[in-house]
Design brief:
alpha+beta; 5-stranded antiparallel beta sheet; 5-stranded mixed beta sheet; elongated
């Protein structure tokens, strides 16, 4: 029996946001030795004790049986104009394959799927390869296009290669017979965790945090971590910092780095970022995103040559504006935490950087910072702007001081290990 309440009902709109909470098993292995090896069992335990695992994604699903092959001979099919008969050196023998690729040539390194392998036929339905006769010629396997192995984004076809281009690995230097999943560093499992279940656990928004939880659950044991001493420059490149709101920014760490260029991100870092939902941009920006996913600490890099005078942390006042990295001109809500220099506001701290000070291809001097900011202020600014970012989602849950210092040091370590810069604190 339903009764109308003696007071009006109001519609309550809750602001919900879910970033892809993707955790790489390979990345976790940097911090733990596995006791439980089965990803599905690990997912069940995480769901039971930590947060719901929505999906277990097996990266390189179609690569596990595939190898790097070399096209030894290439002949026209006797009964079909658009097919070729190929001999492929698979590293463990020769295979005769009938192929319709339009960019085939002798000596070419190709992605070869042997009999029994599962592929996506023309990027569509899955099929298990069997020995077949195509226009009277037996074919023992497949020379694959990117879409048939789920790697089209890594090897996009070139217009000059024709409409049926296959994956060309000739410039990679891979050994014939090498497993594709290994050489492409896609032999990984990714756990998709529903982050709504862990909103009260900001420590779990990182691989290190999840690794600790796995140890606590008895699924793994911790690996001993070693850290190398930072080799810092002797002539500091000073940028003066002034904090007008220490109650809202209780910790601020920063350094400047001289770099030879933003550089090309190494394959292993690209793969980990892609696996966890990030698009590789350049080494400088990729390092900051990598550290966020590893340690849970949002970082930001600036072009130091675009910063003029003293860097000041302050609260925005009515009428303040900024053009953010997405190219949008935003009127800032009163009280939003910002960074400014002698030319005005250049960073919406904890949410998004500004276009003027963004890291560019031409950047030679990087200003890198890690800040602890008031989570309530971040939340208010996000709601007022109607604009949310990955960094804001982490910041509004609270970032401990120790994470800020650790994240900044980890970023510096990566800059030095990848040899793209000389750090000056």
């Amino acid at each position: 029996l339903c009764h109308s309440p003696p007071f009006p009902l109001f519609s309550i709109r809750l602001l919900a946001y879910s970033i892809p909470m993707k955790i790489s098993r390979s990345w976790l292995s940097d911090f733990v030795e596995w006791i439980e090896e089965d990803p599905l069992v690990i997912a069940d335990e995480l769901t039971r004790c930590v947060g719901e695992v929505d999906d277990v994604e097996f990266l390189g699903k179609y690569l596990k049986d595939c190898v790097v092959g070399r096209l030894v001979t290439l002949e026209k099919h006797p009964n079909a104009d658009k097919l070729s008969v190929c001999t492929v050196d698979t590293g463990s023998g020769a295979a005769t394959v009938v192929c319709g690729g339009t960019n085939l040539r002798e000596g070419m390194l190709v992605a070869f799927a042997p009999l029994g392998a599962t592929v996506k036929w023309h990027g569509g339905e899955e099929m298990v390869l069997e020995k077949v006769k195509l226009r009277g010629v037996e074919s023992h396997g497949m020379i694959c296009a990117g879409e048939e192995l789920g790697i089209a984004s890594l090897f996009p076809p070139k217009p000059e290669d024709g409409e049926r281009a296959i994956v060309d690995l000739s410039t990679t230097g891979y050994a014939v017979g090498a497993r594709l999943a290994e050489v492409l560093e896609m032999d990984d499992v990714v756990f998709h965790i529903d982050n709504h279940a862990i909103t009260n656990r900001p420590d779990l928004f990182s691989h290190i945090g999840v690794a600790r939880e796995l140890v606590a659950l008895g699924l793994a044991t911790p690996k001993k971590q070693t850290s190398s001493a930072l080799r810092l420059g002797k002539k500091p490149q000073h940028i003066v910092f002034k904090n007008e709101i220490p109650h809202l920014v209780p910790f601020y760490g920063a350094c400047s780095l001289l770099i030879d260029g933003v550089g090309e991100t190494p394959l292993w870092m690209k793969r980990r970022l892609e696996a966890t939902g990030w698009r590789s941009i350049n080494t400088v920006i990729d390092i900051t995103n990598y550290v966020l996913m590893e340690t849970g600490m949002p970082l930001h890099s600036f072009d130091a040559d675009e910063i003029v005078g003293t860097v000041t942390a302050k609260s925005a006042v009515k009428g303040d504006k900024i053009q953010t990295l997405d190219g949008v001109d935003r009127v800032l809500p009163t009280g939003a935490i910002v960074l400014s220099d002698d030319q005005g506001i250049f960073d919406l701290l904890g949410i998004m950087g500004g276009m003027r000070s963004s890291t560019k291809q031409s950047t030679k001097r990087v200003y890198l910072h890690a800040a602890v900011v008031d989570p309530v202020s971040i939340r208010r600014a996000v709601i007022a702007l109607g604009h949310r970012t990955d960094a804001a989602t982490v910041y509004e849950k609270g970032v401990p001081f120790v994470s800020a210092e650790h994240g900044l040091r980890r970023a510096l370590q990566l800059f030095l290990e990848l040899e793209i810069g000389r750090a000056h604190v």
